[in-house]
Amino acid sequence: MSKRLKSPEVCADCSLPDPRWASINRGVLICDECCSVHRSLGRHISQVRHLKHTPWPSTLLQMVQTLYSNGANSIWEHSLLDPASIMSGKRKANPQDKLHPNKAEFIRAKYQMLAFVHRLPCREDDSVTAKDLSKQLHSSVRTGNLETCLRLLSLGAQANFFNPEKGSTPLHVAAKAGQILQAELLTVYGADPGTPDSAGKTPIDYARQGGHHELADRLVEIQHELTDRLAFYLCGRKPDHRNGQHFIIPHMADR
């Protein structure tokens, strides 16, 4: 990982050099100590994976790389970049801080409470704001600007939003455009590769139709990720999705 990133790698939460973990859904790299706090928050807050000791789908790693290299951490620390924050005593953790309470409290505030994320002006109907953000996401995923989409997701855009005017979800749009990294980001945030649009087609269908075969194969993997894990645990192997085998029944496999 270190050879592939242009900027020096430091922990997003305490700036310790050479972080060995990534938070996939936050697009940041973190050190061992901070990772222990991320794990305690739960996967719905932070999905962590070791950079070297855990196998990575290549496009998922590339997505995290791209977000990290393009400053995704500034999304989660937006207000801390304001000089006024320093004057008021607000600051991020540093390597010399104790894990408890200093680093742990900062990490919880940053990712669980979203205390430093840029806030939109308050509106009477929050659902309208979420709908507007989701429509922006629907349009943005046809481009390669991952950090813009992550920012929209951080503000409340829904990855599985069905746009009634377009008759599709953001993942349909990303699949049509061949934006594999956008598809990775959307599925990390809960987008379903098997959702049909108003024409009855799934994002997988559009990826194949557009000749984006790597993207189509990856979406199939994501769709069956949970059952693949079960199959590997029970049978010691995974289904062959490229040849149409999506499930393995344990007692039949044993025979």
From TrEMBL:
| ANK repeats by residue range | 166-198
For this protein, the record's Pfam families field holds:
Ank_2, ArfGap
SMART domains of this UniProt entry? Answer: ANK, ArfGap
Record has Cell membrane as a keyword: no
Which PROSITE patterns does this entry report, sorted A to Z? ANK_REP_REGION, ANK_REPEAT, ARFGAP
- The lineage's top-level taxon is Eukaryota
Q: Where is the Arf-GAP domain?
A: 1-124
- UniProt entry keywords in alphabetical sequence: ANK repeat, Metal-binding, Zinc, Zinc-finger
In Swiss-Prot or TrEMBL terms, this protein is called Arf-GAP domain-containing protein
Organism, by scientific name, is Staurois parvus
